[in-house]
Amino acid sequence: MGKHKLLKELSTIKTAQRRLSNLSTQARNAMLYTIADALEQQAQRIFDANDRDLQIADQENIELPLRKRLVFDQNKLVEACAGIRQVAALPDPIGRVRERRLLDDNLLLERVNVPIGVIGMIFESRPDALIQILALCLKSGNAIVLKGGREALYTNKELVSVIREALSDNKVGSEWIVHMESREDVQEILQLDTIIDLLIPRGSNDFVRYIMDNTKIPVLGHADGLSSLYIDKESDIEMALTVTVDSKCQYPAVCNAVETLLVHNTVASQFLPRLKKAFEPWSVIIHGDERVAEIITCQPATVAVWDTEFLGYEIAIKIVDSLQEAIDHITYHGSAHTDAIITSNKATAQRFLREVDSADVFWNCSTRFADGFRFGLGAEVGISTQKIHARGPVGLDGLVTSKWLLAGDGQIVAPYAQGKPFKHIDMDLDGTSLWKEEE
Amino acid sequence: MGKHKLLKELSTIKTAQRRLSNLSTQARNAMLYTIADALEQQAQRIFDANDRDLQIADQENIELPLRKRLVFDQNKLVEACAGIRQVAALPDPIGRVRERRLLDDNLLLERVNVPIGVIGMIFESRPDALIQILALCLKSGNAIVLKGGREALYTNKELVSVIREALSDNKVGSEWIVHMESREDVQEILQLDTIIDLLIPRGSNDFVRYIMDNTKIPVLGHADGLSSLYIDKESDIEMALTVTVDSKCQYPAVCNAVETLLVHNTVASQFLPRLKKAFEPWSVIIHGDERVAEIITCQPATVAVWDTEFLGYEIAIKIVDSLQEAIDHITYHGSAHTDAIITSNKATAQRFLREVDSADVFWNCSTRFADGFRFGLGAEVGISTQKIHARGPVGLDGLVTSKWLLAGDGQIVAPYAQGKPFKHIDMDLDGTSLWKEEE
pLDDT above 90 covers what percent of chain A? Predict the structure, then answer.
């Protein structure tokens, strides 16, 4: 796609988004089913395009994990289409009434959920991420600007072609999708702050951090996931062992796997030898501080380990003398993503839950629960460590903003400015919004 | 304050914020009452400092509106202290449970409101804005970095001194307040994106736009307030007149006063002559398009008037041929702040409420209702035209983010990863959060 065509598409995307957002829930869901059907019917075209990307990747000797993420085969297709149909079945995030207040007689205020507008999606290699985010945007009435990695260019182009063709008979069409196909730097999309309302990056930590550091567009995501687990002096050692092993070993390559273990000195000599044994099936490499090294054989912890996200079978262990020391360590070294405590003392747990300022703070369970699906959010847009807009696992609500509707019968401000009081009666939130026709 | 001292204060502000946020509701409210009492007791010191600022302002011949905003006298003090005590009486925005879900037996998830962290406040001239935002931050457990205009330097310094002295006996003290006193460029605070989580600017449109364009910190606010009112073909002409006059004339210097009036051609000849007469007491200057000029005497509208925020007794009037034309005009020329329709046709109103993508969209009432106090939000942090985080009039909720708490009895992810289903039962939101001790 040439520069000229891209600019034209970007100029019409806001109009297209408005048309999309004016569709009924049923119409948006029907579009999702249409897309899923089309992807299944045109599967071979997508597989062929993916083969082309994979051939180039092999010629360029790309790293194995990257190649693995690049594959789009029958399994990925089945999963992607099931995902689209799941999104279609979710409740509509648009039009939900968040606040409803009678300001005075016949003067009704409503705050209702509306789409954000234009979502920018930047992703490395994985073509299935394109389908997932596109489905979430369609569900929530948002337009989308896509910018994929150059290694998946042919697959992404074919996916977008199939989706465009599927929507060509639809009255809204596919102008709400803009695919930036140029092989130019990602820098291009980062400059679109007058067009894109929210950026969602998917890729490595370095990739996400680069994006966060180089755009004025709000970013939903997280660069680091340095999670800590604190074993309190009053804790069930069996529980501590099971939860530590799950948090570290169940799937270590992800952001909610534990990287730093803090152990209270009074339980260390009892806990650590048993933990070392429990870690054996995975050959977990232990970096311990001096006091840990007095109890178990381990690698000496360097200064850097406390700030390292291993993303593998490797862990840093430190002995602490108090809850306060644990909280301070997490505050200083953590990434404010997910941190947990094991304790049988409720007051200790409450202090930890209150004072650890992370997106997810857990008590007596695995850090691996930090996930939109496990939280029951239905769909996961991403996990955010930002404090503004959305924090932690983010569902479709993260693609939604609100607007205020006020309906009266001719009320003016003048009498209220002269002292007429408001009634301000909070009303039931059930029922359809002012803007919707009764069904 | 020297650069060295400033850096030291900024390095401790996050710790101070955590101490503040760990206080009970009662303790934070007590601090608010202490501050109000102290401001009243030390009033003369503040008035003297204000006199000094006013003398300098007079020597420098500053503009009258700016001088007016700079005055901090007995009236302003009474208002400011009443404001602080009102904030103290509001419900605590912190600790409210937003979601509560039983993921499985004895595995309880809660999403609770917590402070954002460090709020940056940049304001021109008005010293009472300092007191208001400081009170809102204290109420919501946020630290604050203040940067006032140089014209109010002595007043602001004295206000902060009085507040610091008042809190000196308090166990948390006043380290959660940092006052940037240097006369250097506002640029300084805009760079603090690793320290400040949210910026709230208060001042002229140009001032706010400059801030939005020159920082990576999220900004809560609005630069422009170009509000439009559309008089539909099916509208009660008496209501249309009353609402138009109130929206324009009740207080024209503010962001929610109407600037552009769109009138359907079928009612124009009936409505416009009466409107012109109704505007006479305020000598409202009318800029009309060619078709308006055929009906009433007016100034010919230039291309620029449709993008002008007059902020005075001046209005641009355009005749349109359809609801669609009105919506398109608002979408293209408006500032997405507050727009309204007068119509007796419910379907027309619903389309307007749905399709106009502004923070506030009103039906049959004055645009001047767009205000946190009128909306019943208790306190107003500001009005935001951003879509991310908060939109429209923002109450204390705008100074709040959330975190997820999960409490179990040793649950691990492994069995769920192998197919064990979650229960995901939504629970009653009433009652205290996991982190709070029962009272």
Answer: 78
